[in-house]
Design goal:
The complex is a heterodimer of chains A (325) and B (316).
Chain A lengths: L1 H9 L11 H14 L1 H25 L9 H7 L8 H14 L4 H5 L3 H5 L5 H35 L5 H31 L3 H30 L7 H15 L3 H13 L25 H32 L5
Chain B lengths: L3 E12 L2 E12 L3 E5 L6 H8 L7 E6 L8 H7 E4 L11 H11 L4 H14 L15 H13 L5 E5 L7 H16 L3 E6 L2 H7 L2 E6 L2 E6 L1 H9 L3 E8 L2 H10 L3 E7 L3 E6 L4 H10 L3 E8 L3 H14 L4
Helix pairs in contact in B: 3-4, 4-5, 8-11, 9-10
Classes of the chains: A mainly alpha (325), B alpha/beta (316).
Amino acid sequence: MALQLERASGGRSREGSPWTGLWAVVAKEMADHLTSARMRILEALIVLTAGGTVYAAMRSLRDSVSEDRFLLLKLFTTAYEPLPAFAGFLVPLIAIALAFDAINGEFSRRTMSRILAQPIYRDGLLLGKFLAGLCTLALVLTAIWSLIVGMGIIGLGIPPSGEEVARSLWFLLASIFYGGIWLALAMVFSIVFRQPATAALASIAVWLFFTVFWDILAGLLAQSLRPVRFGFAQEILAQAQLEMALARISPNTLYTEIMLPLLHPTVRSIGLLLPSQLQGAVLGAPLPLRQSLLLIWPQFTGLIAVPILLFALGYVLFQRQEIRA
Amino acid sequence: MSELVIETQALTKRYGQMTAVDGLDLGVHQGEVYGLLGPNGAGKTTTILMLLGLTEPTAGRVRVLGLDPARQPLSVKAKVGYLPERVGFYDELTARENLTYIAKLNGIPREEARRRIDEGFARMGLSEVADRRVATFSRGMRQRLGVADVLLKQPKLIILDEPTQGLDPEGAREFLHIIRSLKSEGITILLSSHLLHQVQAVCDRVGLFHRGRMVLEGTVDELARRALGSSYRIRVQADGAQPVLTEALQRVPGVVNVTPEGSNRYVVEATGDLRAEAAQAVVAAGGRLLALDVEAPSLEDIYTRTLEEVEHGPTA
């Protein structure tokens, strides 16, 4: 005992695993998510979106069934006004709804000090909440995905090929990580702001900023930083490249760039395409899945990195937070 | 000398320029009820958070049950029950679900947890409402649920932060009863409060906090003697000529001052309990003694007096 004490107080190490109690937190939080009124609303949205997407896609696809090899993928991409392709707006919305009151909610319910007085670390609590949110999000998105695929198969009457299923599964995975970004962001705001409403608003503001304004800003910035003075090809190229680099800061751009090659197998580049690179290419021929994945790999890495970075930021903020109410 | 359950040496916590706890030396023995007393913002809650490892001390040493809360927080928190000020629960869950979550966080096996939870509910008189959502609970019920929650881990030490805050008098009395019954089981209890008569009713020893420092410590009686300089106030009610009786009372050895109040009442300040002597003096002086009463020094007086001294220097 004395020796143990000596060792523990001598080093800077903490006893035990930082993830003690993690699964208890995950189980409790997921149960909360799945039984909450918020979830009822999301479920209604799921059914509406899936139904709407399939219905809209079906109306136009029926005519061209024989001409397309990747019919299933078309279900995800064919959007009709006013319904956008489902993932773009629904994923961030669900993710933010799941996390905006994760931490500040515990403070406003005065449960934080009681929970942290149990033998767990803050690490376990924060990661538990994040994992629970991510699992719930994955569950919701998988439900939508299954609904769309299922209704699509029934409606179109054509079984999907293995390649199509694989591509749409990758798309599902990307959507989950895309959601993870907004989940982690909402969580960071739930640590920073004491009011859940403020955290929700801040998250939505960031989402709106990237959805609506960032592309415009990226264009403006590129124009002023790399102006086309003499009309050289290099100048135009430099400007376009900068604009693209800036645009890729936005998770929306990353996600779109992943979505394109996955769901449109004929897309063979997501950047600028110079004529020299097209030499010998059979235009309109679909790429195999491996090649499409290769194409989106950098974006995919970015998409996974952003939630991890945001979580790390939230972690640091939460560890330093005073827990007294 | 029994074993020290809580021990701090020169414990200090600063928030920027503000010093919340300043060089605190605290020792709480096995099995005693210790009251942290002081106005809001005196550093009571900060001290408690440091004892639990929920806030890191700026300087100084803490030992709780022989462990360092900053380095071994899991062991400390597994053995120490903490009931925060105005404890909160998940309103949308039932009382049982709330406690089950805590049991899981403590790694208590399912069957054992179920048994302990039922036990706790029975003890706190909550069995009837165990499966009702906490949203419907009154303040007093929440507080009792909080105790059931704390008892779940069968703690050796229980820390209660302002436990009677916001309870009605009936609820507060009930709660003090609970504290006494916990003490009778040998559980050490540290409680913080600014409600003095309650602290006085249950605490073995009291530490008086002011601006992060402990300005006075001891049993309530000790504190009284130290703070009030053994001043007892004896109220005498007697018919008779006022100057004569005043004079007679004044002559009793040990009496410091006599103040007549109204036509037949006197307040006698003395260095001890001089009721018998005062009665004798009144009767001997030909007065008709109607009533006699001694005011025990209340913590309230001690508190006020000490805080005044700390603020303005010793009063004459």
